[in-house]
Amino acid sequence: MIAQPDDPVARSGAASPMQATIAAAFACQGRGLHTGRHTNVRVTPAEAGTGIVFRRQLRSGRTISVPALWQARVSQPLCTALQAPDGTLVRTVEHLLAALRALAIDNAQVELDGEELPIFDGSAAPWCAAIRDAGRVDLAVPCSRIRVRRTVEVRDGRRSLRIEPATSLSIAASLSLSHFGELRWEGMITPEIFERDLAPSRSFGRLKWALPAKLYAYATGRPLLRGANFSTTAAIYRDRIIGGMRVPEEPVRHRVLDLIGDLSLAGHPILGHVTAAHTGHELNHALVAKLMRDSAAWELI
């Protein structure tokens, strides 16, 4: 177990006990990892209690709102996706959600004109830079936090994910890859640690699996890895990442990054220690759902 710091401002990396939003709107654009399509995004400030809400503008002119909450999550390959009651999808939201949570932004509206958020370079660093440039402002409403009261665990074969009581959010993760052995990362989730150690890590995959998947996607019309290339992902070939790792043990750090984004769908910052082994999006969401459905396992403070 990681020692918890005696830090009066620690709330999963927050700088104050008040809710916060961005100080100014910012815009960005880029292609999606899976659809390969271009999307324009504008992130704007929001009032206390709003949470993170995606507002997708459809070609018909209608705008559909989808809250970043675990109840709206639907299963899609290799990403986190949210779905409105009418079936409208917003996919690959995990990197932005991780950056917002780690930088303690509780409320924001994310306007987009496509189905999928831009992947950029495969990391959360561009989102962090945009949030930092926009600035952060406290709101006049206290921030509620989810405090884990008892251990909750999910398993799927060798994959496992456990959360237990702690005074702030910390994660210990491991991932075994052939030719690489076991990769590990462990630490507190604070703004500084997230931006330095986790945000630069990129989505990754093996070339021998990615190339057939891309061909299958084009042949069947499915939105899968159409935007994946050497600029948007860390491509693994045998025992190396082409071009090298950006940070030590980059793949496991990216799994932690994704996990932070997926945990944010609980709707409030989580105070707990997470132990993850070979986890991915499906197991992350299984843990969030199991935790939130067990009202005795947590309390809102």
From TrEMBL:
**Cofactor(s) needed for function:** Zn(2+)
Q: Which gene produces this protein?
A: lpxC
**GO biological processes:** lipid A biosynthetic process
Q: Which GO terms describe its molecular function?
A: metal ion binding; UDP-3-O-acyl-N-acetylglucosamine deacetylase activity
| UniProt name for this protein | UDP-3-O-acyl-N-acetylglucosamine deacetylase
Origin species = Methylobacterium soli
Metal-binding recorded as keyword: yes
Transmembrane regions: none
Family assignment from sequence similarity: Belongs to the LpxC family.
